[in-house]
């Protein structure tokens, strides 16, 4: 199988991820923070190593401001529902994922908040920072933004919008699902109040891992309560990080594997990872752009793409195209609406969806050429 579905989950992982998880789960896998015996201490130390690696990657001073979650969706819900109060106003974009849109919609339906959706100004899903600034109201408490569109790959202006949030004193939440591990994310220089991230995509860890960074100036209300291994004689949830959001037993083998993925990224460098993907993206784009039946919704100009080429073949539903790629050519792609309904409405693909080809660090030029040839054959049908 030629795998081009890395925006859903990255594959393959660095070999270090497999090796470290295998060794850990065979020899050291106890419950961190619940006991004081040797194996529990070792497990806790591995969890802390991963926190420290994440802190290094995102320029976070205190690793304990990072809490682990099952995925980015849990982290986004914890941030959104935990930070907002009745009467608050939120700004987000049509390019954001349902993991942002659905929690906001639910809070609005309950009469707790209101929100403004910023629309893209072109067919790639680009967002104008001035439109965000113009949408700010006296009661705007939070700006939520995906670092990069999971539909088109377009990198949104998260640095510039972070500066808007800084000047106006507004909390700033970044959805790092398509940016973490590929794009530069610096919580201090970019004024990121909260950063939600999955472990299994660009960070190259296993599924079932993710996390949330919370700045010390953010007052977050826990939305899940349970055992933390700390303050165990008290019946109320601890209000300090990371215990505030880490209820129940952590996915310790997954966190250990995530640490190995981040070590690979730190060793390789996000600049090198993005550059490799940009070379492959340019080849894929140039190979498809010349065909008259293929319409592209991604750009490769100006370093504005995190690793996705989205397209449709005129007269063909995206699901049919992806099925042919799978069944005839053994290429893994993602069709449909990508859990981003407002993006597809804004870009005019609410009926057909798009085929998303999302590249990874381990893809090769030969694989890209085979993909180009395969799609061109399908377009002749």
What does this structure look like?
The model has no long low-confidence stretch (mean pLDDT 96). The two termini are 23 Å apart. This protein is an alpha/beta fold. The chain has two domains: 2-11 and 269-379, Aspartate Aminotransferase, domain 1; 15-268, Aspartate Aminotransferase, domain 2, CATH 3.40.640. The chain contains eleven helices and twelve strands. The relative contact order is 0.17. It has helices spanning 15-27, 38-58, 72-83, 98-109, 129-134, 158-168, 252-268, 270-289, 318-329, 341-347, 365-379, and strands spanning 2-3, 66-69, 88-93, 113-118, 140-146, 171-175, 194-198, 210-214, 294-296, 308-313, 331-332, 355-358.
Q: TL;DR?
A:
Helix 3 (72-83) runs parallel beside helix 4, helix 8 (270-289) runs parallel beside helix 11 and helix 9 (318-329) packs across helix 11.
Shape: globular
- Cα Rg: 21 Å
CATH class of the largest domain: Alpha Beta
Which band does the percent of strand residues land in? Answer: 5-15%
CATH topology of the largest domain: Aspartate Aminotransferase, domain 2
**What is the overall number of helices?**
11
The rounded distance between the terminal residues' Cα atoms is 23 Å
What's the order of the H and E elements? EHHEHEHEHEHEEEHHEEHEHEH
The proportion of residues forming helix, as a percent range, comes to: 25-40%
Quick one: CATH superfamily of the largest domain? Type I PLP-dependent aspartate aminotransferase-like (Major domain)
* Major pleated sheet: 7 strands, mixed
Provide the low-confidence segments as ranges.
none
Mean pLDDT: 96
The number of E-state strands comes to 12
């Amino acid at each position: 199988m030629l795998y081009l579905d890395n925006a859903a989950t990255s594959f393959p992982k660095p070999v270090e991820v497999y090796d470290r998880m295998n060794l850990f789960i065979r020899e050291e896998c106890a419950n961190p923070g619940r006991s004081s015996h040797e194996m529990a201490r070792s497990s806790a130390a591995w969890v802390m190593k991963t926190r420290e690696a994440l802190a290094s990657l995102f320029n976070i001073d205190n690793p304990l401001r990072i809490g682990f979650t099952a995925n980015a969706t849990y982290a986004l819900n914890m941030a959104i529902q935990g930070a907002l109060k009745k009467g608050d106003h939120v700004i987000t974009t049509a390019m954001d994922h349902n993991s942002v849109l659905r929690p906001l919609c639910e809070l609005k339906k309950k009469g707790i908040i209101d929100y403004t959706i910023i629309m893209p100004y072109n067919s790639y899903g680009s967002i104008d920072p001035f439109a965000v600034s113009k949408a700010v109201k006296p009661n705007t408490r939070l700006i939520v933004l995906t670092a990069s569109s999971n539909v088109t790959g377009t990198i949104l202006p998260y640095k510039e919008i972070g500066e808007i949030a800084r000047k106006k004193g507004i909390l700033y939440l970044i959805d790092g699902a398509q940016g973490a591990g590929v794009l530069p994310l610096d919580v201090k220089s970019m004024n990121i109040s909260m950063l939600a991230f999955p472990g299994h995509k660009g960070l190259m860890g296993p599924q079932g891992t993710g996390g949330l960074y919370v700045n010390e100036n953010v007052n977050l209300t826990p939305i899940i309560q349970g055992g933390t291994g700390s303050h165990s004689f008290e019946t109320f949830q601890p209000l300090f990080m990371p215990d505030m959001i880490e209820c129940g037993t952590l996915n310790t083998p997954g966190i250990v594997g995530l640490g190995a993925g981040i070590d690979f990224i730190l060793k390789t460098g996000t600049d090198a990872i993005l550059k490799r993907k940009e070379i492959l993206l340019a080849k894929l784009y140039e190979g498809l752009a010349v065909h008259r039946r293929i319409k592209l919704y991604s750009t490769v100009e100006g370093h504005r793409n995190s690793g996705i080429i989205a397209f449709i073949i005129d007269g063909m539903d995206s699901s049919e195209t992806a099925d042919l790629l799978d069944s005839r050519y053994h290429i893994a792609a993602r069709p449909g609406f990508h859990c981003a309904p407002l993006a597809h409405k804004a870009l005019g693909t609410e009926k057909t969806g798009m085929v998303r080809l999302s590249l990874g660090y381990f893809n090769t030029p030969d694989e890209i050429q085979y993909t180009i040839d395969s799609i061109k054959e399908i377009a002749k049908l």
